[in-house]
């Protein structure tokens, strides 16, 4: 038979049995370990990855009931459910073997064993263990994929790449060069400019396109859950950890890891992320066994470059790890010549979605769209087009169908604006001003407005910013 590619632990208090196992199995299995004291099992498992445990059922002198074996079998099933357990005993009647299998053992052998029978049993056990581990990884990936696909289903085709302006042509040129490589990419751009869509496009053009795209909003993860969410955790690691859970980083293995809002990550958490990216391995909370990490990292932020290069706010060693290639998405106000193309695209998308004839845009409506400053960028234009199409049954959309603030109002001086007492207008102006002041950085704008990030998002949605 071929060498069994796994790690087997033989647990028996009889040194003669352990010696026999070593002599027989040392050339049959890739990694073989032996213990003669069951009390050492928890410590041993904390530091080693085991596929199969060959477990003796009796450790107490004079006790042949198998009680000790059942206790350790229960321990393994509770704390290490992925490990396959094969029990062995010199007193194995049919009833004891059946009860052991009912309690969670996969198979049993009788001492003295048949060499061929033992080797065949271990072959099957290791194959089962590896299948369990693979299934656990696939389950984690499936959960991550479902979340990723559900998020993608809410998004439109990558309209941010519709454009003929010079800045967009240059962006697409850089995209075509870096996407097929394994280089880490840092995407800069204002809120709503299409950073995640750009990241997905990089993934789609890479060699990892057939694997998972894992998007993580770093600003939305509470600090106290950062390690549990990203690194995963072991059952019992903390209150509420009722089962082993795979972290998002391991679930992204083989694919692309998109770290959105990276600048919102606290400094002490930046250190932990940097260590994982440098070592290319991640250790779940409450565990000591690291998992190898094989991902391509794409990060994004709406923070200014001044913020990123400020050591008090962002670690420079992490920045250098992330920005092998740096791509900047231009705001919509700097590519207004692309607005007609974008508007036509969104009209086609929503006409099909709502099963109605695609309306036209009047010259005044198109002019209004191009003159508007669009602090919410392409996302805001997308929402404006959808709302106008839903609320109008006309064949041609007019400027008033978009409910945009008049150009003259946008250019009012602060002194004139302060004469307005309409709460809706005052709130909109305050939110827009804060977003402009902080170049679209949601966290900083929310802090200045005295709001949470989610509260600011709700007001941006309300005012179409």
UniProtKB/TrEMBL annotation:
Gene3D superfamilies (alphabetical): 1.10.8.60, 3.40.50.2300, Homeodomain-like, P-loop containing nucleotide triphosphate hydrolases
SMART domains: AAA (SM00382), REC (SM00448)
4-aspartylphosphate modifications at: 56
Transmembrane annotation, as ranges: none
Pfam families named among the record's database cross-references: AAA_lid_14 (PF25601), HTH_8 (PF02954), Response_reg (PF00072), Sigma54_activat (PF00158)
UniProt KW keywords: ATP-binding, DNA-binding, Nucleotide-binding, Phosphoprotein, Transcription, Transcription regulation
All residue ranges annotated as the Response regulatory domain in the record: 7-126
Residue ranges of every copy of the Sigma-54 factor interaction domain listed in the record: 161-390
SUPFAM superfamilies: CheY-like, Homeodomain-like, P-loop containing nucleoside triphosphate hydrolases
GO MF: DNA binding
InterPro entries, sorted: AAA+_ATPase, AAA_lid_NorR, CheY-like_superfamily, Homeodomain-like_sf, HTH_Fis, P-loop_NTPase, Sig_transdc_resp-reg_receiver, Sigma_54_int
Protein known as: DNA-binding NtrC family response regulator
Species for this entry: Cellvibrio fibrivorans
């Amino acid at each position: 038979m071929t060498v069994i590619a796994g790690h087997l632990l033989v647990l028996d208090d009889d040194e003669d049995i352990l010696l026999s196992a070593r002599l027989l199995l040392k050339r049959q299995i890739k990694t073989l370990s032996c213990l003669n004291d069951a009390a050492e099992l928890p410590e041993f498992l904390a530091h080693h990855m085991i596929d199969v445990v060959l477990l003796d059922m009796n450790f107490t002198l004079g006790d042949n009931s198998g009680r000790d074996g059942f206790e350790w079998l229960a321990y393994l099933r509770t704390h290490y459910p992925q490990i396959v357990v094969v029990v062995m005993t010199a007193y194995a009647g049919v009833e004891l073997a059946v009860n052991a299998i009912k309690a969670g053992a996969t198979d049993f052998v009788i001492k003295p064993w048949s060499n061929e029978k033992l080797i065949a049993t271990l072959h099957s056990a290791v194959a089962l263990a590896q299948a369990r581990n693979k299934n656990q990884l696939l389950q984690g990936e499936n959960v991550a994929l479902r979340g990723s696909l559900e998020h993608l289903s809410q998004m439109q085709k990558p309209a941010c790449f519709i454009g003929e302006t010079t800045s967009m042509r240059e962006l697409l040129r850089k995209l075509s060069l870096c996407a097929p490589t394994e280089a880490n990419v840092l995407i800069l751009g204002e809120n709503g400019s299409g950073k995640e869509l750009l990241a997905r496009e990089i993934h789609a053009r890479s060699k990892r396109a057939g694997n998972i795209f894992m998007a993580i909003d770093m600003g939305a993860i509470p600090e106290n859950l950062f390690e549990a969410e990203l690194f995963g955790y072991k059952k019992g690691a903390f209150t509420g950890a009722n089962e082993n859970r795979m972290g998002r980083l391991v679930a992204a293995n083989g694919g692309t890891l998109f770290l959105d809002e990276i600048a919102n990550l606290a400094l002490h958490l930046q250190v932990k992320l940097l260590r994982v990216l440098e070592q290319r391995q991640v250790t779940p909370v409450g565990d000591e066994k690291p998992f190898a990490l094989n991902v391509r990292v794409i990060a994004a932020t709406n923070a200014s470059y001044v913020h990123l290069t400020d050591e008090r706010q962002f670690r420079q060693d992490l920045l250098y790890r992330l920005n092998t290639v740096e791509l900047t998405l231009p705001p919509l106000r700097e590519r207004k010549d692309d607005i007609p193309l974008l508007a036509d695209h969104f009209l086609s998308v929503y006409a099909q979605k709502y099963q109605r004839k695609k309306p036209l845009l009047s010259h005044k409506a198109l002019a209004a769209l191009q003159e508007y400053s669009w602090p919410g960028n392409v996302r805001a234009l997308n929402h404006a087009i959808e709302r106008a199409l839903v609320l109008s049954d006309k064949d041609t959309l007019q400027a008033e169908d978009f409910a945009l603030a008049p150009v003259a109002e946008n250019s009012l001086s602060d002194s004139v604006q302060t004469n307005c007492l309409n709460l809706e207008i005052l709130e909109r102006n305050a939110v827009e001003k804060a977003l402009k002041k902080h170049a679209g950085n949601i966290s900083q704008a929310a802090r200045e407005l005295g709001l949470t990030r989610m509260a600011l998002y709700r007001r941006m949605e309300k005012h179409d910013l």
